[in-house]
Structures are given as C-alpha cells and as structure tokens.
Design brief:
With about 475 residues, the protein is α/β, with parallel strands linked by helices. It contains 19 helices and 17 strands. The longest helix is centred in the N-terminal third of the chain and has 24 residues. It is globular. The two termini are about 35 Å apart.
C-alpha cells in the first residue's frame, strides 16, 4: 500500500471527491516530515493535497482518453513549494544566478505583522501588508509603523475589543487563540462542520464535454482575479495542467512584486479597471467564454461591480466560480478580509508553534503554509467541479479558505521532534526541478512543478508575464504552446 492510502489528509480529500478510490499503485507519496522546524506535518499535508490534485486531473484525463496515469509526489519537494521565494534565482550581468534580495517593504511588513501582547494578557496580530490596509490599522492603533510603536499601541487594548474595532475599520488583524478556543468559537465551529474545500452545484445545465487537447485542462479558460499567494497559486496550478489562465488586474491595484514574479508562471496578464463601464463590459465578455472564474477579492466586493455569484452564473451558465477567502463560506467572520498570518493566529497554529518551539509567546510558522495549501485546495476543487460539469452539467461554486487550511494542518497531528529539519532543498535536489525562463523580471531559474504525472507532466507553457502586458482576450482553443525547459 502506498503512503497516499495511509494518509488521513489524502483520505479526507478523496471523501470530498466522492468517487471510487484510485486504484492500487495509482498514487505514490514518498518521504516524510519534518521539512520545516515546526510541529505541524506541513510537507506531508501539502503532498497529500498535491497528490489529490493529480487524482482530480486524472479524472479529467480519463474522461478524455479512457486511461488513468500514475501520480507521484515527494514530501520534501511539496514542502519546498510553500516557500518558492527561497528558490528563485536571477541571472546577474556576470552570468551567475543569484537570489534576488527581499524588498524593504516585505522586510518591514514581516517585522510589524507579528503577535503582540494585549492589555488583558492575550495576544493580537495586526496585519500591515499593502499601504491602504496598513493605514487603516495605524489609524485604529494611533501609532507609527515600527515594532516598538505597534507593540505599545496593541498593549493598550483588550484583544477582543481590538479584533472587533479592526474589523469595523475594514482593516485586518486577529486575536491569537488556541486550537480549542477556535473550535469553540462560532466561526471555527462553522468551518469544522464544512468540508475542507466546498464544491456546490449552484445551477443545473447540460453536460459540457472537454474540448480536444493533450493535457487534462487543454482548452479550459480561467480568469484569475486574485493577488498575493493563495488565489494566484490556484491559477498557477491550473496552468500546470494545460489551462489558458488570464490574470485580470488594474494599474491602481497594489501588488507585491516578488509574489507576482513567483506565482504567475504559465499565465498571461491584462489590465481591466472595473470602475469603468467599458472595461467591466470587456470582463463580462471574457466571462461568457470562460470555464473558470477565480475571485480573491474581499467577500462581496465583486458583487458590487456586477460580478457576484448569481451574476456570473447568468453571464455564463456552466461557469465554475472559485472563491478564495480567509474565513470561509459562512459564519460571523465570513465577510472579513484576512491574510496568512491572521489565519495562523486565530486558528491555533501560532499558539501551538510558539509553545512547542520554546518561544516567549505565539509565533508564526516558518512559511506561508496556509496560503499555498489554500491555492492547491482551490485548484483541487476546481478540477472536481470541471469533471462534474463534464459528466452531469451545471454551474458550480468552489470555496477554499486560509482558516480551513489551518484547521486541516492541525487535524494531521503533531511531530514531537523537528529541530533537525532542513527547511530548504539542497542545490543537488533542486537541479532537476529548476525551470529556466526569460521573463519581464529577467532571466530566471525557478522551482518548477513538483507533482509528477506519467503521461501529462505538469509544466508551464509561458514565462511569468509583465503585468498588463497581454490583450484582454482568449487564446484560440487548441493553440499549441511549447513547455518551458527544465534547467
């Protein structure tokens, strides 16, 4: 029996799939945790989700060809994808590839976006990414954007009051809770009763066979309206299986360049400013010819622009709408925006990680583990929905969230020993995984797809694009694109 069949995480995902189990030997997971210095089974959980996406891609491949293929993943490689920024190298003028420096803005964000003690003996994490959201937090705290000033300001508040006040200001932050406190909270209890990724039929329709092609997602068209990690990871994962993924953003929307660089491989990028009627109309036209619409906006925000769930289903019957959020599909916090660090804080991960690593208080895990896992879960749900649409028809809503991912990690149990974890792949391990590309960011070496399928290898057809560098239009279905070369 392969390790996949012994994995509780993999079994839970197969229950979401709700089909006969993969045949013996179809899925192989090798290796084990720890990879990072954390008690959570980060690599094994990520490997289980990536393996599940392979099974879901296999379901589509079987609909195309009648055949299934072997799926394999190595735990250390899966874990490494949760910190792809560690592995991107840019060729300098001397011809050598070196890791680009982390931007000052990212370093600063990491310093202040930490758990800080509150007046009532608890801890609270305010989030400072993106200038407009940082301004809202600073206005609530009435402080400067420095660790000392933020710490002093948070110390004047009770944690629950600050959490509510931050939310009312449409800013981002979260009270640090234990796992038990989160599961007893109405939001945690709501999520605990829901599947880790939700796939819901929202309208009936005729079955839609897959267009011709030699990849599981050949001919599938994906609109990617997401930024910063989880949503872009979902789109990139779909591109690895052959989808035409068109990123839609606008010049005024803030971005984190490192994340655009590392999570846009295989995609194209266009600008459409939805504040202008003609550009919103162009998005509607693209939607009518799309198969998947991935939304990473604050819950409800796209609905205000005419692109809510019901609007999208009317525009394009048979559309797979994918919602990526922090707090999930319902519950008292569902309308709140959030980030990786907030999900770790509210759900119990930061508390447990700090406690078991001997920190003075709660501590964030050493990678954005929820962001990437949520992206993979969203891609898994999308693949399942596309297969259901092909078999039985209908429009579907796929929902994945950072907090569900945090809870999924915690369901896998804890490691008792993890201080010897390597935390990075060696250069020898990386060499066969690197992809070389000429992009708008220069000549790059980057960690390529690590999931292995025996007949349709996961690969990117396009280098990471320049934001807004492509026209807002679809490629011709069946257009052949060469795969980027492994280094």
């Amino acid at each position: 029996m392969t390790q996949a069949h012994r994995s509780a995480a993999f079994s839970e995902l197969m229950a979401v799939r709700a089909m006969p189990a993969p045949g013996a030997g179809e899925v192989t997971i090798t290796g084990s945790d720890p990879f990072y210095r954390t008690p959570f089974r980060v690599g094994e959980t990520a490997a289980a989700v990536l393996a599940a996406t392979g099974v879901a891609a296999n379901d589509l491949w079987q609909l195309r060809t009648g055949r299934r293929q072997a799926v394999s993943i190595a735990v250390p490689e899966a874990a490494a994808t949760l910190r792809v920024v560690d592995y991107t190298r840019k060729r300098d003028t001397d011809g050598q590839y070196r890791r680009p420096p982390i931007s000052d803005s990212m370093k600063h964000m990491a310093m202040v976006t930490q758990p800080w003690p509150t007046a009532d003996g608890r801890w609270f994490l305010p989030h400072f990414n993106l200038p407009h959201l940082e301004r809202r937090v600073l206005d609530v705290l009435d402080c400067e954007s420095t660790p000392a000033s933020v710490s002093a300001a948070v110390a004047r508040w009770d944690a629950d009051v600050l959490e509510t006040t931050i939310a009312e200001a449409r800013a981002c932050g979260g009270k640090v809770r234990t796992r038990e406190e989160w599961l007893a909270h109405p939001q945690g209890a709501y999520l605990a009763a829901r599947p880790v990724v939700e796939v819901t039929k929202v309208a009936e329709g005729q079955p839609e066979p897959l267009p011709p092609g030699d990849r599981p997602l050949s001919g599938a068209r994906v609109l990617d309206l997401t930024r910063i990690l989880a949503g872009p990871t979902a789109g990139r994962t779909l591109a690895e299986h052959g989808a035409d993924v068109l990123m839609v953003t606008a010049p005024h929307l803030p971005q984190v360049p490192e994340y655009v660089r590392d999570l846009s491989h295989g995609k194209r990028s266009c600008f459409l400013d939805l504040r202008h009627a003609d550009q919103a109309s162009r998005l509607a036209a693209l939607t009518r010819e799309a198969d998947v619409f991935v939304n990473g906006y604050r819950p409800g925000q796209l609905g205000e622009r005419g692109f809510g769930l019901e609007d999208l289903a009317r525009l394009r019957p048979g559309l797979i709408t994918v919602s990526v959020s922090c707090f999930g599909s319902g519950g008292p916090f569902a309308g709140r925006a959030g980030w990786e660090q907030i999900a770790q804080s509210v759900s119990g991960i930061a508390h447990t990680h700090g406690q078991m690593t001997g920190a003075d208080g709660p501590k964030l895990a050493p990678a954005p583990i929820c962001d990437y896992l949520t992206g993979y879960l969203a891609a898994f749900g999308t693949l399942l929905a596309l297969a259901r649409r092909a078999r039985e028809g209908g429009s579907y809503h796929v929902q994945a969230s950072l907090c569900q991912s945090a809870m999924f990690y915690q369901r896998q149990g804890l490691l008792s020993s993890f201080n010897h974890a390597p935390e990075q792949l060696t250069e020898a391990e990386l060499e066969p995984l690197y992809v070389c590309e000429d992009s708008s960011y220069g000549n790059l070496l980057t960690l390529g797809p690590v999931l292995r399928l025996s007949e349709t290898p996961c690969q990117w057809a396009l280098p990471t694009p320049k934001l807004g560098g492509d026209p807002p239009e679809w490629l011709a279905r069946g257009a052949a694109l060469p795969a980027l070369a492994r280094a």
